[in-house]
Amino acid sequence: MGFMKQEEIWEHSVEAGLRKVHLPIRSQLVLGFLGGAYISLGFLLYIRVSAAVPPAWSDFGGVLGALFFPLGLIATLLAGGELLTGNMMAVAAACFSGRLGLRQLMLNWLIITLGNFAGALFVAYMFGHQAGLTEHGIYLAKLVKIVHAKTAEPFLQALISGIGCNWLVGLAVWLCYGAKDGAGKIIGIWFPTMAFVAIGFQHVVANMFIIPAAIFAGQATWLEYLNNFVPVYIGNALGGALFVAGLYRLADRKLWTGASPSSLKSSSSTKSVSHIQSGSSSSHLRE
């Protein structure tokens, strides 16, 4: 099970960020839809698993559900999808490297936000509401408990929770990029993702599913969703962009900028051109 050096992971993250930004807008929207749907399916699985645990063991049920939630991020990164929280790390890395502008970063985040929201809303409405998977018995009770806890957090608390969440999710993406085989990528994704769910940190895309699911069940309002969305979005952006991409950028600035080994710099430059020119390749989309 091979693993890259830190400087190689940084270069890989930068290249991934460049590829994401240079995908056609239609591809970004479609892959964003898939990313939002996959994360929502992971959260739906969390609810179905954790709610089945007796109330006296509810804490254990939360941990058990957290073990299954990473399915969503694994599917997004390995099967193919675009996820806002992952882009908050990778596209920011490309921006910090000086190879993307702030306008390109903001446009990509906006497009993926829209795609993720569409995918999450689809799963919430079709599977949660129409199929009733979140609106009956113990599953509805679990849904309401989760949503009320999320929407009850004040602005600052939700923002800080969002930072913690995407610090871990950004780390999961970083570890996935660093692994050289499928098993290593899954393990690298699994533990940080499981940790943020078990801790209870707030994830903006997961909330795009869970809170609308409660709205469709008549247990929450769109105003409550908006009041949650803003601080969690800001917190996730800070967690991925600053606490992962930003801190690794500062760790050894001379190395990250390519001022050290010339072979790393030339290799990165060559890969950048080829990846951008062939951005529609399926192997590129998986990253």
TrEMBL record:
InterPro entries found in the cross-reference section: Aquaporin-like, For/NO2_transpt
Residues passing through the membrane, by range: 29-48, 60-84, 105-127, 155-177, 189-217, 229-248
Domain of life: Bacteria
Entry protein name: Formate/nitrite transporter family protein
UniProtKB keywords: Membrane, Transmembrane, Transmembrane helix
Membrane-related topology note: Multi-pass membrane protein
Coiled-coil positions: none
